Q: What sequence folds into this?
């Protein structure tokens, strides 16, 4: 290979590396500054410290505030609740919308699409009244339900798309083999859609884990019902100066599970765009 | 098991899929539904399978009306064009799936599945997933899955269309032999008339949702009751000419522009009463000879055993099967002679045969 060819063939990689550097630098700064008293640029000033991570042991805002572990649990509950409900309901609804012919099917589909495109901010006040009436304001379950509601249209459309790609013949074959509709769904179709379901689960989990607007709106301050994103905001309180060291440490703490998730599941996530299900089959 | 379709009809709103089909299939018979795409043959099959509900008419298995019986309670097996194997299951799991749903004891399930797989020649592939099988092997798995529960009726929906030509031939005879051995009543849907001719005990020719003919392959081939059947069955297809049939000095002549053919008296009675009729003659029933009508060769297609010669006479293009030894070349003149006993006549407006109705 000539030098010229080498340069040409490595050019795309070089471009990719260059474009990724700022992003990596951001993460690097996050890591450094969570262990530093102060940073100048990317360099720590005044030595390294574990002080920023003290929130793991004690609550930084006094006893009235929940511990980080309680908040993490809340966040996990919201995200897990959301994942389970969204996946279960979307995969049933998606199947019905893809396969069954019932009156109002088209209207239902367009309505969900409109809901998906609807700016959620405009609904916040209405939802507040609903939650208060149902005594669900300032509860993890209330936040979870609202989150599910906003995620559902996306989930339903995604799953409908996956079901659309499953051949009718396979379903008919199963019916003739002696399966009931529910058995067809559970034993034949769902297993072939595993990549799609996994991808939807991850999307739902991450969007629950990172949610800020809805938990912030429907819980009080950084109380016992707070999630990580809301909790994080307390460090930027108006009364005291912002403790950037602590902010980065909590941010990093929140990031870890999501980052791990992405690293181990990126193949599945990519398959969501490939139209799903057919992979390897 | 006998199958009887009475006035079977399927409509979607105003769209008619199948219109008042009547036919009876005898126990152990192999019936082929033949027709171009969109003719309603697969729709009919899916109604027999219980996937579609008929809009009108009845389906009887023996004497039992099964219109309202779900597919799983009809005791049928079906093979699809796309194989429709379950991609997440191994060959063993695919074949044993119907038994698993019937809650067959595990040891019996494995034994019967293995037995069917051995019969299909895929007994050594039981642990593979469908993705790791060739098309022919996948089709065998699909066939095995259809057979494992010992169905009373087998349905085939163009099962060989996705296979390459060679494999199609061998699978064709294999399916036919299997059907004869097992004696299972079978319905086989195809658009391939060669498949239909070679496999069927009886062929049901369909077009636009209607049943055009239901008879043995020989009958359908030799006595086409409509123009469509004449055209559709036979390869290369039948030549069609618009002619006037008249009787002079006791012989019947079929005439068109530059053509004058002597045709069988027995076949021409009805045609002579009409003004103009459609004459049909198959390429193999025309001879290239020393006498007859003169035409120019327009094209020569090599078929291997035969050559298909396109002869132009006036405005008419006539296809003739000829011996390659004749070494015919485009542009040269030839004389063609039709076999007067093999002509078909069809009414021009109703397209019905003037011989067999």
A:
């Amino acid at each position: 290979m000539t030098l010229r060819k080498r340069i040409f063939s490595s050019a795309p990689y070089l471009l990719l590396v260059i474009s990724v550097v700022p992003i990596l630098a951001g993460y690097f700064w996050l890591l450094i500054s969570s262990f530093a008293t102060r940073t100048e640029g990317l360099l720590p000033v005044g030595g390294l410290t574990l002080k920023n991570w003290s929130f793991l042991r004690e609550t930084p805002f006094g006893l009235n505030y929940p511990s980080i572990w309680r908040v993490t649990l809340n966040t996990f509950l919201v995200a897990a609740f959301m994942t389970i409900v969204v996946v279960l309901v979307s995969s049933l609804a998606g199947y019905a919308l893809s396969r069954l012919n019932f009156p109002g099917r088209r209207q239902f589909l367009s309505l969900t699409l409109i809901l998906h495109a609807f700016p959620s901010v405009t609904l916040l006040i209405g939802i507040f009244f609903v939650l208060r009436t149902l005594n669900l304001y300032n509860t993890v379950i209330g936040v979870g339900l609202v989150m599910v509601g906003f995620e559902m249209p996306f989930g339903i459309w995604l799953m409908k798309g996956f079901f659309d790609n499953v051949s009718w013949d396979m379903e008919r074959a199963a019916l003739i083999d002696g399966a009931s509709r529910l058995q067809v769904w559970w034993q034949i179709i769902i297993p072939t859609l595993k990549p799609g379901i996994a991808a939807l689960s991850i999307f739902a989990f991450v969007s629950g884990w990172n949610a800020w607007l809805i938990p912030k709106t429907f819980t009080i301050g950084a109380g016992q019902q707070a999630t990580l994103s809301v909790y994080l905001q307390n460090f930027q309180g108006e009364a005291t100066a912002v403790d950037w060291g602590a902010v980065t440490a909590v941010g990093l703490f929140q990031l870890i599970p999501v980052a791990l998730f992405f690293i181990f599941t990126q193949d599945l996530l990519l398959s969501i765009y490939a139209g799903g299900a057919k992979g390897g089959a | 098991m006998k199958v009887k379709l009475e006035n079977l009809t399927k409509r979607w709103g105003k769209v008619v899929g199948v219109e008042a089909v009547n036919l009876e299939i005898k126990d152990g018979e192999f019936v082929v539904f033949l027709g171009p795409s969109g003719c309603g043959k697969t729709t009919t099959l899916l109604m027999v399978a219980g996937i579609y509900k008929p809009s009108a008419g009845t389906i009887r298995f023996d004497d039992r009306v099964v219109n309202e019986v779900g597919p799983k309670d009809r005791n049928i097996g079906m093979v699809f064009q796309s194989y429709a194997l379950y991609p997440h299951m191994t060959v063993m799991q695919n074949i044993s799936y119907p038994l698993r749903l019937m809650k067959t004891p595990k040891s019996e399930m494995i034994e019967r599945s293995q037995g069917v797989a051995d019969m299909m020649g895929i007994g050594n592939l039981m642990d593979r997933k469908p993705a790791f099988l060739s098309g022919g092997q996948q089709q065998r798995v699909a066939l095995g899955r259809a057979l494992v529960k010992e169905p009373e009726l087998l349905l085939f929906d163009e099962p060989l269309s996705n296979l390459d030509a060679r494999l199609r031939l061998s699978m064709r005879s294999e399916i036919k032999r299997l059907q004869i051995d097992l004696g299972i009543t079978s319905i086989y849907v195809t658009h391939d008339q060669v498949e239909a001719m070679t496999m069927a005990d009886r062929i049901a020719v369909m077009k636009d949702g209607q049943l055009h003919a239901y008879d043995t392959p020989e009958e359908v081939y030799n006595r086409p009751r409509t123009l469509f059947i004449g055209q559709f069955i036979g390869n290369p297809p039948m030549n069609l000419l618009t002619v006037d049939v008249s009787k002079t000095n006791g012989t019947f002549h079929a005439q068109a522009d530059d053509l004058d053919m002597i045709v069988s008296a027995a076949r021409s009675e009805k045609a002579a009463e009409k003004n103009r009729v459609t004459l049909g003659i198959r390429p193999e029933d025309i001879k290239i000879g020393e006498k007859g009508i003169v035409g120019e060769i327009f094209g020569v297609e090599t078929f291997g055993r035969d050559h298909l010669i396109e002869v132009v006479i006036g405005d008419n293009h006539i296809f003739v099967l000829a011996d390659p030894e004749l070494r015919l070349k485009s542009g040269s003149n030839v004389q063609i002679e039709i076999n007067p006993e093999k002509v078909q006549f069809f009414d021009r407006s109703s397209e019905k045969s003037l011989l067999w109705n």
Remarks:
- Residues 46 and 203 of chain A are 40 Å apart (CA to CA).
- Residues 274-281 of chain A have pLDDT under 50 and may be disordered.
